[in-house]
Structures are given as C-alpha cells and as structure tokens.
C-alpha cells in the first residue's frame, strides 16, 4: 500500500498480524495525539486523544479481567448497552482481557437476550445497572466497568481474544448470531482505504468528524465508527437522539460525515419539503435544486462547494451545517426524492449496502451525479465480488451471472466466518462453497453497479404472475399528504393470490375527515397512473406501531401476519368514497 500519511493506521494492519489486537494497536498507536472522541457534558465539549482513550481502555480491560476472574479466558461475554463515548472502551477492553464479545441490542427483551446467551454459550453479560437483576447469568454493570477510567489497574499481561459476534433481529426462532474474526474485520477496514482512493470526498481531511448516530451493536454503526478511527478522524457522540439534538450536534461540532438509516434521511427530506410547501416556497426550492444539480453535474465537487456556499447556505445553517461533506444511507430503501434533495442541497449523499452477515460491502461513491441519483448501492468494494443467482422456475436450475436480475450473492474474505448455534461454532453456509446468498433481489449492470429491488421473501406475486417490489410501490406514494409513513405489503386475496396493500400511518387524527379525503383523492390520482399489475388494491390506515427491525426497516412478513390474523388495529380506506370503514376485514 502507498505510504500516504492519511492512511497511517492501515500500514500497521497490512504489515503485521491480522487480528483485532493488531487493528487496535494500529488505530490507537498511529496518531496518539489526534482527537478520537468528542462529546458534550454539562454544556462543555469533552475531548479525548487516541492516547488518552487507549489508557482508559487498558484500565477498563484490567478492571474487567478482575471482575470476570471466574469466567474462563476465551469464553463469550455478551455486551448490551446503548452507544456512549466509552462504549468502545468496554468493547475493546473485553477482547483485551481475553473474552470474545457477543454484541446484542440494548432494546431486546429478557427472553431474546436469554436466547442469544444460550445460543452463543456466553457465560456473562455486561449491561446497564438497571438490567442487573434481569437474567440468571454473571452480570457486570456497564457503569462498574467504565468506573475503571477513574482508577488505574496495572495489568499488562493481556491475552487477547479474536472473535466478535453480531445478532440479527427477529424472534427466538428466527434470530441468528454471526461470527467475525480479526482477519475478516481487518479486511473490512482495509477496504475503506480503497474507497477513499477511488473517491476523493471520502478521503479524511485533518479535523474530520463523524457522528456516532447509529447503535454500535449494529454492523453499520460499528464498521463506520471503526472506519473513522482507522482514518484518524474524531467520533462525536450524542447526548440524546432527539432530532433537534442531532441537528444541533452536527452544527456545533462541525460534523463532516453522517451515516444513518433511510428512516432518518427520508424523514429529514419530508420535513424540508413540508416546510417549503407550507411557506409557499416549494417552486423556488425546486428551481434552486434543478440549478444546483446542473451546476454539480458540470463542475463536480467544486460545484457542490459552490452551491453550499452561495445557493443554500441559509438552509444548511438551519439543517446539518455547511461542514457536512458526506451522507451515507444504509440498512434499507432510501427514497429517490431524498437522494435528489440532499445532493441538490450540496451534500455528497449516497446509498450503500451491507448486512450483519457480510459487513459494509458497497457505497455509491461515484463522481457521476446521475449514478448517485439513480439509487444504486454502487459496486462491490475491494476484497469482495457481487453476482446474481438467476433461477429458471420451469427447469429448476440456477446460474451465477455477473449482471442481470436475481438474488444478490457475495463472496470474499471479509464475510462472517461462521455462526453460533446451541452453544457451538458452526461453519458458514456458502452456495457452491464460496457465495453467500443475501436474500435480496438485485439488478447488476454491465459495469458492476448494483441496485437492490426487494427482499426475496417480500416480493409480491400478483394474480397475473408479475413480481412487484414493495419498496417501489412505497416510492410512488411517498409524497401522500398527512402521512408520516407508507408501507407496502402483499396480502392474501380471495383466490389465493397476493393483493398489493398499502398501509398508511397518518399524521392527523383519523377523525379528520377532510384530511382523510385528501389522502384518498391524491392516492387515486397516483394509483390510476401506475401499470395495472402495480396498482394497489387495498389501503389500510392505522396509528399502531409498525413492526421494525432494529428501528431501521420494516418487518413485512410480521406486518402481513398481524393484518391477516386481525391483531393489527386498523381501518380500511374506501377508495370510492374517501371514507374510513370502521373495521379492516
């Protein structure tokens, strides 16, 4: 690798052992005096350098080793806590003390946590003080573990563990635990350098800051945080997740990078458009966006800097600020209107792809604005290959193709190395011994760019035999008035075929007859313009919470189940009268 000072931490990873220990020592030892952690406390900004954070982590590791002295080294220890400035000190500290780390969602209930503990064979858990009595396992309070920062525990004899595990969302019967070792994870971090070399806006500038908005137990949140630290950037932590706090933190700390999920980005875009519509400035905004996108297509990144400074400065000053350079969406479908709006404002906004099983595998880091606006997830990053598995329904045969439409399959050295099941390590499942079947329907063009169409299990097969993708249906109706959420799902029809249904979560009271009729009017106007096989046959209105995975994407099969079994409280919109019918049959 080129000896570029911007990638100092990478050199240590490439020239030595490929372990979590090597990754840690490269990250925290390469630029010890640079700031790695930043957060607000009692109105003041607190900063820790890489050297200071290393000292905190080593004290935490020594403390954890003492607290877990009766747990054999090499065992799995679960870690359940929301992301805080000192979350990484416990994550690294557990491995440094000799324990493999099982990351679990801090929102999971006791039953699911108990399931993960049993499946992994974990012997202890680090969790919040308030959760200490919840489970029949050895429990270390997170607050006790991080107390070590105020004390010194002399222990340099650390025998590092080298595995972590991440859990998928779901129930006790569907959730799975995927394992990575240091070698696979270092390949993830190494690939980020090649992203930078391909796309200059990715390259770390001195003083770059990344917002730790995503939960660190989630693969997206963990990887982007470690990417940032590997580049020598500063990770900024939120005091809470309120929308106003997120915007204020971005401006106050001059955030350069903001990775988040489609739900967040789509809501930001909706609020911008709603504000413009209510103030009568929507035509002016649309004209400015068209001009901005044209300027950026002609002048590239210098055009983006121009529009941020002269065309949208006032709007950006009340949004994320003008320091934000990169926005990345991952974890689900982001609206094309959201992509267009945020790029139009001058932010370099792109779609990405990854999962618990494969890590972060691509971003649409393309200079070509049209490619970013297309919603592509980009092409596979270094160390990986994308292809599609195409099935012949009649012949029952399957074929791997480099382009076309089919199930996205992935191969490379950075995928998970196995699973934990029944307390045992299980070898990974690979199609033809090398390919991981993602469960997503994708289209890959001749150049290698990919687009995600839907989950295989979520595809709606209509009476005519056509495949309809729920994300595409939601896109058509994204702008419906008085709706804060639209969700497409296939419901069983009388003849056994799927009916395309749209579930609306209104932003008004269901008794607001005028608003409901306006929704019906605009829905019908959009629906009649769609191809016949894509038209929605049923509209359901409900204020009940929609089942979500990790708060990121909709659980369509669960939504389908609760609608069909009658446990989902909802009304049905009569598309002819525009009235709500009291019961959803």
From TrEMBL:
Keyword annotations from UniProtKB, A to Z: Ligase
InterPro entries per record: AMP-bd_C_sf (IPR045851), AMP-dep_synth/lig_dom (IPR000873), ANL_N_sf (IPR042099), ATP-dep_AMP-bd_enzyme (IPR050237)
Organism, scientific name: Anaerobacterium chartisolvens
Domain (AMP-dependent synthetase/ligase): residue spans on this chain: 32-413
GO molecular function term, any single one: acid-thiol ligase activity
Pfam entry (one): AMP-binding
Name this polypeptide is given: Acyl-CoA synthetase (AMP-forming)/AMP-acid ligase II
Domain of life where this protein originates: Bacteria
Gene3D superfamilies with a match to the protein in the record: 3.30.300.30, N-terminal domain of ligase-like
SUPFAM superfamilies to which the protein is assigned, alphabetical: Acetyl-CoA synthetase-like
């Amino acid at each position: 690798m080129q000896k570029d000072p911007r990638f100092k931490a990478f050199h240590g990873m490439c020239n030595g052992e490929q372990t979590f220990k090597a990754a840690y020592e490269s990250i925290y030892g390469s630029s010890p005096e640079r700031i790695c952690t930043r957060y607000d406390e009692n109105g003041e900004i607190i900063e820790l350098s890489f050297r200071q954070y290393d000292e905190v982590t080593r004290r935490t590791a020594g403390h954890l080793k003492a607290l877990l002295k009766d747990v054999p080294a090499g065992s799995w220890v679960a870690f359940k806590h929301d992301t805080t400035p000192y979350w990484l000190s416990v994550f690294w500290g557990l491995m440094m003390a000799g324990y493999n780390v099982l990351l679990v969602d801090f929102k999971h209930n006791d039953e699911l946590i108990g399931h993960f503990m049993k499946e992994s064979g974990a012997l202890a858990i680090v969790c919040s003080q308030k959760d200490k009595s919840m489970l029949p396992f050895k429990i270390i309070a997170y607050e006790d573990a991080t107390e070590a920062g105020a004390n010194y525990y002399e222990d340099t004899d650390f025998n590092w563990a080298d595995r972590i595990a991440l859990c998928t969302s779901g129930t006790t019967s569907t959730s799975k635990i995927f394992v990575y070792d240091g070698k696979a994870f270092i390949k993830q971090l190494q690939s980020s350098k090649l992203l930078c070399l391909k796309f200059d806006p990715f390259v770390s500038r001195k003083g770059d800051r990344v917002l730790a908005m995503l939960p660190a137990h989630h693969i997206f949140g963990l990887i982007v945080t470690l990417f940032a630290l590997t580049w020598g950037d500063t990770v900024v932590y939120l005091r809470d997740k309120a929308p106003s706090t997120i915007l204020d933190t971005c401006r106050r700390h001059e955030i350069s990078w903001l990775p988040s999920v489609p739900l967040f980005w789509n809501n930001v875009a909706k609020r911008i458009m709603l504000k413009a519509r209510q103030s009568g400035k929507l035509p002016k905004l649309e004209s400015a966006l068209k001009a901005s996108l044209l300027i950026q297509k002609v002048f590239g990144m210098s055009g983006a800097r121009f529009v941020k400074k002269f065309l949208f400065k006032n709007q950006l000053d009340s949004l994320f600020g003008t320091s934000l350079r990169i926005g990345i969406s991952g974890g689900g479908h982001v609206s094309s209107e959201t992509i267009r709006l945020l790029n139009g404002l001058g932010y370099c906004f792109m779609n990405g792809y990854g999962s618990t099983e494969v890590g972060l595998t691509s971003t649409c880091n393309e200079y070509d604005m049209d490619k970013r606006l297309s919603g592509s997830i980009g092409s596979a990053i270094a160390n990986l290959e994308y292809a599609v598995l195409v099935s012949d329904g009649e012949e029952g045969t399957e074929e791997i193709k480099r382009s076309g439409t089919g199930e996205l399959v992935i191969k490379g050295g950075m995928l998970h190395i196995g699973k934990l099941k029944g307390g045992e390590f299980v070898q990974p499942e690979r199609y033809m011994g090398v390919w991981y079947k993602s469960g997503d329907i994708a289209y890959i063009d001749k150049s290698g760019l990919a687009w995600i169409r839907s989950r295989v299990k979520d595809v709606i097969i209509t009476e005519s035999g056509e495949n309809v993708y729920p994300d595409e249906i939601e896109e058509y109706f994204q702008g419906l008035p008085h709706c804060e959420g639209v969700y497409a799902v296939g419901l069983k029809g009388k003849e056994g075929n799927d009916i395309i249904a749209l579930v609306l979560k209104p932003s008004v009271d269901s008794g607001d007859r005028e608003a409901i009729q306006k929704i019906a009017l605009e829905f019908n106007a959009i629906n009649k313009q769609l191809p016949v096989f894509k038209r929605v046959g049923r509209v359901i209105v409900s204020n009940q919470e929609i089942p979500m995975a990790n708060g990121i994407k909709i659980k369509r099969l669960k939504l389908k189940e609760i609608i069909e079994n009658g446990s989902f409280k909802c009304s049905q919109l009569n598309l002819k009268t525009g009235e709500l019918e009291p019961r959803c049959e």
